[in-house]
Structures are given as C-alpha cells and as structure tokens.
Amino acid sequence: MTSTATAAAIPTASNAELAQTFGVLLIGFIFAVTLYGLTFFQTYIYYTRFPGDDRKTKYTVGLLWALDTTVTTLISHTIYHYLITDFMIPFNRLVMTRTFIAELALSGFLALVVHCYYASRIWAVSYRRTIIPAIVIALSLAAFALGFVSAAKISSESLFSRVGASGIRLTKGISGGLVAAADVLVAGSMLFYLRPTRNPGMAVPEGWYDKLVVYGVNRGTCFAIFHIIVLITLVTMPTGQVWILFHWVSNKAYVNSILSMLNFRNTHHGRGVPEEASLNQHARGSSGRTGTYMTRSGMSGIGGEDASHSVQFNVHTDTKSAEPMNIELDMVRSGYDDVDSEEIKRVGEDSTNSGGPSKPHDLERVLDSPS
After folding, report:
1. How far apart are CA 264 and CA 62, in angstroms?
2. pLDDT tens for each residue of 59-98
3. Which of 16, 83, 257, 360 is most buried, most CB within 10 Å of its CB?
4. Using a CB cutoff of 8 Å and minimum separation of 24, what contacts does 309-316 make?
5. Which residues make Cβ contacts (< 8 Å) with residue 5, sequence separation at least 6?
6. 290 within 8 A of 327, measured Cβ to Cβ
7. Is the overall model pTM greater than 0.90, yes or no?
8. Alpha carbon distance 11, 106 (integer Å)
9. pLDDT category, 279, cuts 50, 70, 90?
10. Which CATH class is domain 19-266?
11. Could you tell me which residues are beta bridge partners of residue 202?
12. Do 293 and 278 contact (CB within 8 A), yes or no?
C-alpha cells in the first residue's frame, strides 16, 4: 500500500515532454554511436593502409580517436543516467550531470585539434600563406576559451533544464558563432585552394559518391553545416534540447572528415599522397597521347616562384591499334621518394615497345625492381 502511494506521488512526464526532451537526446545518442563506429573503422583503415605516414599525422589520428572515444563514453553515461536512472523524474527536475559538462568542455578541445590540422592543410595547399590559417586558429582558440567559460556557467546550474538559460545561451552562442566562422573559413579555403583548375593534373572525383565524400566531407563542408544548425537551434529554441542532438553529431563529423580525407589519398610506399599531388588522366593533351603531370610543392625562392615538378610522357602508338595508350604515374614531390629521371625515361621507352603497364601499380613495381 505504501509503495503504491509512493508511486502515485511521483510526478510523471507527459508523452509530449518525453518526445521533446528524452526523444531528442535518444536520437542524438543513436547518431553519435553510429558515427563512432565509422570513426573506429576509419581509424583501423588508416593505420593499416598508411604505415609509412609521418609521426605527426599518426599521432593526430590517435589523439582524435581517443578524444572521440572519450566523448562517446561521456554521452553514453549521460543518456543512461537520464533515460534509465532518472527516467521517472520530470524533465524540469533533472539534475545536471558532470559527464554532460565534461563532454561540452572536451568537445571544444576536439574542435581546436581539428581546426589546427585543417589550418596546416590550408597552409600547405595555399603555398605557405599564413593569413587564413592564423585566422582559423585564432577563432578556434577564442571559441575554446569561451567554451570553457560556458561549461563553468552550466556547472553552476543544478537543473538540466537551465542549460539554455539566457546567460549561458549568450556565452554558448558567441562560442558557437566563432566555431561556425572557423568552420566556414576552413571549408571555403579548402574548396578554393583545391580546385582542379588551380592544381593541374590533380585527381578529380568521378561519380556522385566520390563527389559527395570529397566536397561534402573531406573539405569540411559537413561540420560547417552542422555547427551552423547548432547555432541556429540554440538561439531560436533555447528551452528545447534540439541543439544537443546536432552538437553530438557535429563532433563526429569533425573526426570523420579528417579520417575520410586521409583515407581517400593514394598510397606510395605506404605513405599517403596529398590530394593536390595525386595525378590522373585529366592532364592529357587533346591528342590523347601526351600527358603532362604536375605537382606543386609550394612557393619557394625570392619572389615566390612556383617550384613545380612535371613528368611528361610522349607515347606514340601505331595507327592500326584500337586505343591510344595512357601511362599513369603515382608520383609525389621529392619530399617523399625521389625517382631517378633516367630510370623514368627508360621505363617510358620500354613501355612504348612492350605496350606499357596497364595500371599505375604496375609501373610502380617496375620502378621499384632492381636494375
């Protein structure tokens, strides 16, 4: 009898309240865990496919995986606490959990790491211009500092429903605006500097899937869109928790964008070839027989002369043959592996007589074989 009276005395949440609060958190948790599985898979692909990458990139990937794992663990604890432990408690009486506050603070550090990596990529593809990378890092540092301030303000509140209070919303909104500005600058710079017209001979994605991954994910477009949505929902719907859903998803978009960009590269002796140095047949001449492949290694020398490397093959085929022969060479600038020019010339002459290799890897095996 006492237990029945106690259960009747506990106020329960309505179906509408559950859908607007716990339902949103559950959907965000499902997306976050699903994308974490993609993070785990892409991390495994990276370390098995690119064992010869430089240590800086390897450490960055390891750090991102560790951060994403920790963030996912904190999200899981938050969901378990609200949907299992305190499920019968109305939303307006839920207590703020430490794991939710820690996730907000750690997400700011994750965004800073991602922005620093993309800033280094922009510095490389823009021929070592420092203005845009410096702005991106400055915006990210300011957002990181304000994110800690907003996390401290949230920790001072005892109720979870107060996470959208006016003072917190102002600080969180400014921090989110700075993050969104850095995201847009990153995406715009990557799209601008990695144009095929700016990098002659660069591999161009073909098919809707490749284009979606390259332009929608690798360039940083997806996390820029998600953070803009986070900012809009935080400002326009302060009493709801919709922004938390997009906030959790945006963190996964950060990590998977970098991993996708790294895994989409070509390989050369176990090292990843930068996208701007990946060559394909789009650089062929109009006759279909002459291909000039060029990779740009950045600005060097007085006056910023372009230190480009190009390899040109003139392959003459018999007029009776059905198709002209094309040779693709998976080659990068001298910072990776130097290929002797006489050896390249000899392989080009041999391929003219023998019909040549049918794939880039066949030519690579020829170059690697002892003379």
Report:
1. 18
2. 999 999 999 999 999 999 999 998 888 877 877 788 888 9
3. 257
4. 309/333, 309/334, 311/344, 313/348, 314/289, 314/290, 315/289, 315/290, 315/348, 315/351, 315/352, 315/356, 316/289, 316/352
5. none
6. no
7. no
8. 34
9. low
10. mainly alpha
11. 279
12. no
- For 149-174, letters b (16+ CB in 10 Å) and e give ebbebbeebeebbebbbeebbebbbb
**Other beta carbons less than 10 A from residue 316's beta carbon:** 10
- pLDDT score at 300: 35
CA 287 vs CA 197, 292, 316, 325, 369: distances in Å? 20, 12, 11, 11, 32
Number of H helices, E strands in the chain: 12, 4
Specify whether the CB–CB gap between 174 and 220 falls below 8 A: no
- How is residue 286 written in tokens? 């109009």
Q: How far is CA 176 from CA 52, 165, 188, 231, in A?
A: 37, 15, 18, 6
Taking the CB of residue 286, how many other CB atoms lie within 10 A of it? 6
In the chain, domain spans: 19-266, 279-368
Judge residue 146's burial from the number of C-beta atoms within 10 Å of its C-beta, 0-12 exposed, 13-18 middle, 19 or more buried. buried
Specify the pLDDT at position 167: 72
d(C-alpha 283, C-alpha 102), whole Å: 50
Q: Which residue has the tokens 């109305």?
A: 90
CB 180 within 8 A of CB 227: yes
Q: What is the C-alpha end-to-end distance of the chain, expressed in Å?
A: 92
Task: pLDDT band for 45, please (50, 70, 90 cuts).
Answer: very high
